[in-house]
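Bit of a strange request maybe. I'm writing a small parser for structure token strings and I need a real example to test against, not something I typed by hand. Could someone generate the tokens for this chain?
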Amino acid sequence: MMRLLLSLLLLLSFLQMNAQTYPKVILPGDYPDPSIMRDGKDYYMTHSPFYYAPGFLIWHSQDLMNWEPLCRVMPQYEGSAMAPDLLKYKDTYYIYYPAAGTNWVMWAKNIRGPWSRPVDLKVGGIDPGHVVDKEGNRYLYLDKGEMIRLTEDGLATVGEKKKVYDGWKYPDHWDTECMCLESPKLNEHNGYYYLTSAQGGTAGPATSHMVVSARSKSVTGPWENSPYNPIVHTYSVTDSWWSKGHGTLIDDVNGNWWIVYHAYANDYHTLGRSTLIEPVEWTEDGWYRTVSAATPVTPEQEIKHGLELSDDFKGPQLGLQWTFWKEYAPQSLTFKEDILWMKAKGRTPADGRVLLTTAEDKNYETQVEIRTGNGNVAGLILYYNEKAYAGVVSDGKTFYIYRDAEHKTELPNRIGKHFFARLHNCGNRLSVEVSKDGKEWTLLTGDMDVSSLHHNNYGGFYALRVGLFSAGKGSAGFSRFRYRNAVPQEKDMSAYLMVFHKDEDHGLHMAISPDGYTFTALNEGKPVIAGDTIAEQKGIRDPHIFRGPDGAFYLSMTDLHIYAQRDGYRDTEWERDGKEYGWGNNRGLVLMKSWDLIHWKRTNLRFDKLSAVFSEIGCAWAPEVTYDDKKGKLMMYFTMRFKNEANKLYYVYVNDDFDRLETLPQLLFQYPDEKISAIDADITRIGDKYHMFYVSHDGGAGIKQAVSDRVNSDYEYNARWYDPEPTACEAPNLWKRIGEDRWVLMYDVYGQKVHNFGFSETSDFVHFTSLGQFNQGVMRTTNFTSPKHGAIIHLTRQEAERLAEHWGCLTMLCFHLNKKHFI
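Reply from user aminoacidic:
Good idea to test on real output. This should exercise your parser:
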């Protein structure tokens, strides 16, 4: 019995450990250089404010995961303040920080304040780190491995700086920005002082930054470098997080240890550096390192923070989400009847008054109601610094659309001095709209590229923030400011999009439906993308489309033309001998990503070029994409076989840009009889279960279902056949009816003379009702026949209308139904 109980406890521990994958984002957006401390059961954290004022927003948490803002403690200061050290010594809180070529300190008896005015320590260097030795002497570590003694009250320095640490020698071939030994943070543990530092440079190459560790019996050294260095590092540009570094160790109330650091989201320097957390463990030889698996101490939960960005400007003070730029001017603000009036300054966003808040998402929408005063120019912008901004401003007569500080477009303002402005930043592609009433919107410009507005081009270490702008004379009024993650949810959906291919042309086809019953093909039934323009074999098959967690569209297809010899693309029926490699015998896929279903970025993937292990694959077919929320990664799964063996289902993880694999293929599912082919998997998460429909060739080809608690493994075999067709079927695709607890299983009935799509509907995944085939029951097409291997997703009304308009069928209603069907 005891052995059984121990086994169960070990199993539960294993399951918990695999429930989360780290690092986790605890503060998304621009929260760099985190400094974190524990005071009993309370945790406090602050970050670099740079030129944003008031500075040093202090956060509070009691679980290290969920954070609430407390206060901003520094109204005015000199220069750009950065890389603070927040701590409590005896009964006093301190913040040490560098700015204007020197280091400063503020103190308070209560973390909420009042805080003292900054005291100049009159010592150069950056990134201060406070430490107290065993005799109670206080010291300040600085960059370049230097340290200086502090007075007993910590408000002045004693003597001169001296160098006590040389850093860790990383390999010469590593791609970094500079040695840049900085960010010294010190902890005492088990008789040692541990010095946690940053090296490699804060930005620049994706692999620049890192966290390194050293230890000593004395705060003055000598320091021994950790054999586990670097503790944290971005090793590859394919990593989800770039330039990981500037770490601080923290222990929790349960005795567990963590490291908190910052990093850029892959290819999103514009968002600045988010704050991340990762568990660490102490080794038997007295060092710390990150835990390779997940930690069992924190249950799986939604990580959130309490800083609401939207604002109704009730007053009488500015909310904690707002900061000025290079000034602190509360006297310029007046709150009246839920309107924030902001006095003007300067003439353009380069010298005007801006009020800024931190964007958090790769895909977000923000809007505000604006009133321009006499001689006033006001607007809604995205602001990096005086040389880098984008958005829309107006004087009531003209709309000025800025692409950056040097390029703007002028359009007549037919709305007047009272208007709404809306910005949609979708993957660093900006759309600008205006409205008279906040209901009907006019697009001024779309697809504006703002991806270059960041530190690597303009310096400063800032982020592209949302800004309210007022210039010229008088004041501008702002009301009903809104910020939201713009990834649409089911409640936002109004239409259906189907992708498919046709044997006649081997191109990508799209069809749209307002109700999920009647579909009309775009482009008058011709391909929306020709296969010979995107595929190595000059043809595509098996298209699948998926909306990612960022709101972007991920399109995956088989790179294969089965009639390439007939159509003059090949001299042979197949690329390789069909007797040895089987039917089709392709080796590649086509991956495409889009934010609007119109403009696409493409990558051609060849599995035989990944590794010699896959040089002899017989095919790579029917790719689909889903999201593994445990790993926080896109997962692509597909059919693959080696030479002429049975087909099996495999999976890989793909980067967010959808142009690079992050893992080699691993087995997803194998039929119980390993000689039987299993192909065309389609995975849908329903509640806490993953339902995988796939094709079994156990006798005639048909649809089966396997269910798992995990997206990438442990699918349980079920012998039941799920399609009602008397002939061969393939390509299952499960999609949900909008606003209903009904799912439709669609499949390609290829075994009949005129192939077609068939449909079955379910609410419980046990009982399925046949809906027949296209044009033989409730499911209809209006302008196409014989579709092959399709997939369906939901669209918003705006997405559907934009797509229909692009293909010239919006005015004809495209699907012969009134727009009232768009709910």
